[in-house]
Amino acid sequence: MQTTITNSVKIAADFIKSGEVAAFPTETVYGIGANAYDEKAVRKIFKAKGRPADNPLIVHIARKKDISVLAKEITPSAKKIIKEFFPGPVTVILKKNEIVPGVVTAGLDTIAIRMPASKIARELIKLSGVPIAAPSANLSGSPSPTNFIHVLRDMRNKIPCVLIGPAAKFGLESTVIDCTGKYPVILRPGSITLEQIKRLDKNAVYQKRTGKVKSPGQKYKHYAPKARVKIVKRETSNVKRETPNVKRETSKVKRETSNVKRVKEAYIGLTRKFARDFEVAKICKTIEEYAKNLFSFFRECDEMGIKTIYCEKVPEKGIGAAIMNRLGKARGKK
Ligand code: TXA
Ligand code: MG
User: Is the shortest distance between the CB of 88 and ligand 1 below 6 Å?
Assistant: First the structure.
């Protein structure tokens, strides 16, 4: 299949209108979208990604008033979140209306709804004239794409259109919040934090790790690079102790510095002193920068043939909770 690569929102909208899929930018990660009311079109998304049919999609809207078309009831907990954070990097789960085909929600009686902050994404939805069902635009299991190069790498010749735009502002997927109950329950942490949600509703919580999986996507290994992912603590600097066999450098790049580096190993985190030892390293100045760069660093490491990526552990508060959630999935923890 030939892929049209375009920066014209209109061209991408024409694909969506004709029952096709198109990848598009958002402020979180790139998505791959289709008309949410068109069952056949939505099936094409699952096929292109190799996504299990029991993992439901998020429906993207451009106007708040569309929520009441898609959902049966906007609960008080949803109302507060929508008022404060729509448009933005957050998704609310509500009871669904009949109009939404079962393939979108994987047969669940609930629907995930998000209004992106990205103007290009909202323009695409407006021009398409329908809500757009869209998961992240990666092959199932791979790290989500944070720029259009990533999308092309995974989706070129698998989908007919890629709408190109800027790199994602946040770099991690939206915070998914179940609003069907009395208080908000965070199913997937993201850039909108528990602390922020608690300011609206003090009873807000993370979903308990045990028991029934409410967000089916959370049961799969996810966001994983080909390289092994290891989480390292800052305090103990177990970076060094875990693999003591440090090799002499041989390559051209490394000869320049004549330092001893850890070949085929990479580091991402906030602590400069760890980074020195590695062939490849990304030092992030802030936790937001860490979140923004994590997935693209995973992809870069895979391209360079890195075997192990050491990722610095961060406190599970604020956006740190989202980083630790993705790292847990990336190393295969359920
Ligand atoms: O930032 C984002 O959310 C991006 C951009 C493209 O909007 N989208 C995204 O979609 O990350 P996806 O499909 O990769 O992740 C959607 C998550 C999955 O974990 C899925 O199981 C969950 O949302 N989800 C969708 N519908 C649900 C529902 N009705 N109940 C519970 N979880 C749901
Ligand atoms: Mg995804």
Answer: no
The domain 228-330 is classified under which CATH number: 1.20.120, 3.40.50, 1.10.20, 1.10.3120?
3.40.50
Domain boundaries, the chain: 4-206, 228-330
CA distance 173 to 324: 13
Tell me: the pLDDT tens digits for 42-63?
999 999 999 999 999 999 999 9
Residue 56 Cβ < 6 Å to ligand 1: yes
> Which tokens sit at 151?
């999308």
- What ligand has the least distance to the C-alpha of 109? 1
Residues 249, 255, 260, 263: is their CA dihedral positive or negative?
negative
* pTM, entire model: 0.91
The CATH class for the domain spanning 4-206 reads alpha beta
Tokens standing for 201?
A: 């509703």
Q: Which residues contact 323 (CB under 8 A, 6 or more apart)?
A: 172, 287, 290, 291, 294, 314
Q: In the predicted model, is pLDDT for residue 290 greater than 50?
A: yes
